[in-house]
Structure formats: structure tokens, C-alpha cells
Automatic annotation (TrEMBL):
InterPro entries: DNA_methylase_N4/N6, DNA_methylase_N6_adenine_CS, N4/N6-MTase_EcoPI_Mod-like, SAM-dependent_MTases_sf. One of its GO terms (molecular function) is DNA binding. Residues 193-213, 528-572 are annotated as: Disordered. Belongs to the N(4)/N(6)-methyltransferase family. GO terms for biological process: methylation. This is Site-specific DNA-methyltransferase. Residues 74-369 form the DNA methylase N-4/N-6 domain. Keywords: Methyltransferase, S-adenosyl-L-methionine, Transferase. It comes from Deinococcus arcticus.
Amino acid sequence: MTERRNLKLELTWVGKDNRRPLLEPRILLPDPALSYHAAERRTDRDLFDNRLIFGDNLLALKALATDSTVRGKVKCIYIDPPYNTGSAFEHYDDGMEHSLWLGMMRERLELLRDLLSEDGSIWISIDDNEVHYLKVLCDEVFGRSNFVANIVWQKRTSPDMRSTIGAGHEHIIAFAKEYASFKIALNKLPRSPEQEAQFKNPDNDPRGPWVSSDYTAQGFRPNQMYKITTPGGAEYYPPEGVCWKNVEEVYLELVADGRIYFGQDKMSMPRRKTFLSESQGVNAWTWWTNKEVGHNQEAKKESNELFGASKAFATPKPERLIQRIIHLATKPGDLVLDSFAGSGTTGAVAHKMGRRWIMVELGEHAHTHIIPRLKKVIDGIDQGGISQAVGWQGGGGFQYFKLAPSLLKKDRWGQYVVNAQYNAEMLAEACCKIEGFTFDPSQNPQFYWMHGRSTERDFIYVTTNYLTYAQLVEISEEVGPERSLLILATAFDSAGETLENLTLKKIPLSLLRRCDWDHDDYSLNVANLPQSSSPEERAPEAKPVAAETRGRKKAVQVGPGLFTDVDGGEGA
């Protein structure tokens, strides 16, 4: 077996070593008015915990990467990012737009990798403009040993006469999180009617139809170079340059089991029989024809039927293409993610196939296209695409979320303060994300200081109140010597810092250098970005603050009974 070596490769581009964004781990705010579900449960397999997230996809990925229910749980990621064509970057010269595209893709790919399960995989649609650079970038992010395939999809049915050499294909770059685990989990494709028709039963084998394959293998192995005598008396040695597929002991077992075929006259070279009844399907290969998985015209027709010709999406993917990817990479109930949702094809196909899904989209078509499309899927009205092939009749639902605004905003004097839009519960959840805790407020008023936990003995408490020394002593006694508590408060008596099981931090002061605050758009639409300034105009680079060392702790709710609202003014 060929060893898969994880060689260290790096792709260099202009600006690669510039300061990386310090992403704010935003919380997600549910909106029941834009969520949707079927009126009744139709089967035991109906899924209702799907998520449609509205907001910048880089910030959304950061939010998901700090969510323990998602991080390391995604089985399949499919993305169809902007292809970096010249028309999309008309405000920049070629070198600049290429570098910007690579930099922005790297930020997303690194977060996407963290979301994958150990046997998960990512599949990226791309065209010739960036495919080779993307491959090397993915080698760097995922590891070259985790490369699965560069799939060529035949997207057209005829040549593009407008081009010198018409582009008839696109690429799908596939990488695994861990190749060995992915290889075990990878599914086979069902056989087509044409493939099944190749199975015959000329010897009336009671196990049914079969196909035969060559019984030789490339190379020279001394223990696989024995003489074979057929039942009709013919003698064979392996032809030059090859050997038999198995050692003689295994060959004799196959003969005894009737799995070697010597032709009707029993005189032909041996061939191995594979029975249709035992077949698990066929392995996928890297050439996907438009007959098998659809083409641009098919995708356009699907979009027209869903949205009308005047609102059809410009560059959709056919449902059959996404179906094949999801089929190969997942099983029913697995989680699928698309952070460039577009018109929502990935979520629609995953829903029909019984997979859970998460989609992220910033554009207004999240409301004009994706939500109406998903409603049609859930109601069973959408009978286009793969619906009839999978017997889709509707069911399930999804939850709509939007990214919360930035936790810190500047006041009229240019000082960062807690955003007035945050109530105390939102503040506690946001601080849990930033500090690496799971938001899990206690429902027991006695443990009002338990807002989140990092371990079974390590908690966090977030409050906008001033904490006196007496209050801190009381909390310390409730926490006890076997637990620890991180307290984030707007102000407190500094004498409390001597209490061994408590760690005290002031907000927003302790948060200021943790993230790039009040930055809402990391869009890939680089035409909207400001032009690069001269070196003299650039501000000094901010240095990430090292994580503070402290005793490990644990916490749960907010105040006695319920959460206290954040002061609506300027904050501390």
C-alpha cells in the first residue's frame, strides 16, 4: 500500500504574513418568526434542529467553532465560494485580487477544518482560475496526506462558443479531516441499470447473477507466481509483468467456493466472480458526467421552477451533484454544512436525504430565496430536483438565527463599552464564548453565579453589578474549595483577588484586546474593501494577548431567579 506522507507545504502570497483578524466569537440569536417547521411529524426520521444562519460567514464560522454541539461534529462540508474571476475583482490588479482571495479563503478553511468530525470531509467547487492554488492551500490547511480527490464535473452539454477553448468542466476539491477514518466511512455509489445489466449467470450459479474480473495483479510477488491448472486441463502461469491476485492457498479456497470462472469449456484463464447479491455498490471515480449528476442547464431549470425566471439564481448547482457528494460522505442523520449557501441547494438536498444541515448566508437572498425554498421542501411542495428519486413528501423544519451585534462598541468619546443591545443573558453567553466556557446557566436560584462551565469543577459568573468584598467572600464560600470560579464584573473590591478559588476580571477592560470589536463584514467581495494604505499610514500591529493563567473553575446562572439587564448607558 502506498504510504500517505504528510509533507509540509506552504503557498506564499502577498500579505500572507500580515496580522490575522482576531475574530469575535459572536452568539447566535434565534428568530422564531423566520424559523419554520411542518405542522405535524410525518416520520420518526423527521429533523427539526437544522439551522439557517444570517450573517457574515467568517463570523458565523467562528461562532460555530466555539459551539461544543457543532465543533468536531460536522460530517460533510460543501462550499461553492466565489471563483475569483476577473469581473468580480475589477478594482484590483491581478496580483492583489489573487492574494486577497487566498487570504480570505485561508481564514475560512482553518475554521471549517475545526468543525469537521474525524471521519468528515470537505468538498469545494472551483473553476480553473484558482483550482491549483486552492489545492496547495488545502494541502497546507488540511495536510497533503488528507487529500482525497480532484473531481472533474462536466457542467455543460455543449462547448462554449464564446471562448477560445470552451470550459466544459468545473472542479470539486475533496479533503478529509483524517484520511484513514474517512476512507472507512466513505460510501459506495449505487449501481446504475446499465451496470446491473452487466451481471449474468452463464453457469447457473445458485447465488445469482455475477460479473468476472481479471485474476492478475501488477508486479512480481514470488508467492503469487504458482501454476494454475483449469478443470479442463489447461495450464497457466501469470503473464509477463504480473502475478496472480492471491497466494495459492486463497486461490484454492476461492475455487472450492465456486468463485473462480474458467469459461464455459473450463479451459480459459481464471477470472474472479463478484455476485450482484453481495455487491455493496461501486467506487466513485473522479470523472462525473452531466448524465450522472446534472449540468448547468438542469440547475437553471430547477432554479426557474423554484423562483421564477426573473428571480432565478445566476449560477446554481444541480441537486443531483450535491446529492452525490452527500451520499458519498454521509449517512442519514449526519450533519452537513454549507457556509456559502447561495440559493440554499445544499440544505434543500440534505433535508430531502434525511441529513441534518447548517447553512450560512449574508446576502438578502437568504430571505428572498432560501427561506421560501426550504418552506416548499418542508411542505412537500417542491417535487423538483431529487425529490421523486428519494420519494420526498415533506416534513421536518429549521431554526433561523442571526449573528448578534458586536459585544463592544465605541461610545461618543471613542471608548469601548458594552453594547446597549445586550441584555444580561446575552452578555453572559458572549463572555462564555470568549473565555472558552459552555453557556449553561443554572436553574437553581441558590447557584445564581453559575452561568457556564469549562469542566465539572470550573465555572464562570458574569455580572454588571459592583461586587463588594463581603459579596465576594460569600460567593467564594458557596463555590467551596473543590471548585473554582471566574468572575467577570464591571467593578469589584480588589481585596477579593486574594480569595483562592476566585479569579476576577473587569469588563470590558479585560476583553479589549481579545478580539477585533465592532467589525461586521469579512466579506469575500473585495471590491468593497478599502484600498491598501502606504506603510507610513498603517497603524502599528496589535499583538494578541496571551491567555491568562488562572485556577480552573466553573459556574452557572446569573442572579437570584433571573438575569439582570445590562445598564443601557455607556458601561464601564
